[in-house]
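Justification of computing resources. Each target in the renewal requires a structure prediction run like the one illustrated here; the chain below, 149 residues long, is used simply to show the kind of job we budget for.
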Amino acid sequence: MANKWDADPATNLSRRLGKSAHELAITTGNASCPDIWELDNGDIAIIGTSAIDPNGTLLDFDVREVETSRAIIEHARKIVLVADSSKFSRSAPVRIAHLSEIDVFVTDRLPNLAIAEMCQRCEVKVIETGGPTEAEAVEPREPSAQTKF
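Resulting structure tokens:
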């Protein structure tokens, strides 16, 4: 690999994770519906979540997606969680994992000091990208006098 983010051409598909959309009968018949495959080297996995509980539990609504995320976490060497700060104000019924099982957490911002301290205790590297708060993202802004259309 020339760059750590380049695909490794020597990597092979090991096995499909879960059943295909066709096997689950949840497809419109579109042959381009993606499958999720385990790579034989499994270096880095990027996952998402629907909600993050105040105790650091990652939650989701779909049991099938949770099963896939758990398999990904089990087999990858490094887990990257990508979730915006709105996930801290939501709840969902199915447990994926805990923040302590994550290596890197990419988010727009951490909601409070307690979560930042939890990430530090769990040795989770946090990357905050900034951006508008949830309230700012919802509220439309008035164009400034200098805005040209």
